[in-house]
Amino acid sequence: MKVLIVDDEMYMVDYIRKLIDWESYGFDTVLTAKGGSLARDLLLEHESELLITDIRMPYMDGLTLAEKV
To answer: Which candidate, 40, 45, 42, places its Cα nearest to that of 62?
Structure first.
């Protein structure tokens, strides 16, 4: 399974990625993106089972990203 973590602040992406033992929850791949547009492109290439996104981001916010998913 894959998880995608999205935030415009890369320190938050790295923090969440390191905070959780993803393998213990069955995730073998942790994808990251700095912003909604990049995340949308990643989701087209890699189907993820879980999306964790910031709501307030420039260009494409997390709510718009969730609608597109």
So the answer is: 40
**At CA 63, angle to CA 16 and CA 22, rounded to 5?**
25
Q: How many CA atoms lie within 13 A of 57 on its CB side?
A: 25
Q: For the whole model, what pTM was predicted?
A: 0.91
Q: Which two tokens mark 30?
A: 């942790």
pLDDT in tens, 10-63: 999 999 999 999 999 999 999 999 999 999 999 999 999 999 999 999 988 999
Task: For residue 48, give the 3-state DSSP assignment.
Answer: coil
Who contacts 59 (Cβ-Cβ below 8 Å, separation ≥6)?
A: 35, 36, 37
Q: 13 is written with which tokens?
A: 């992406």
Per the CB < 8 A criterion, the answer to whether 69 and 30 are in contact is no
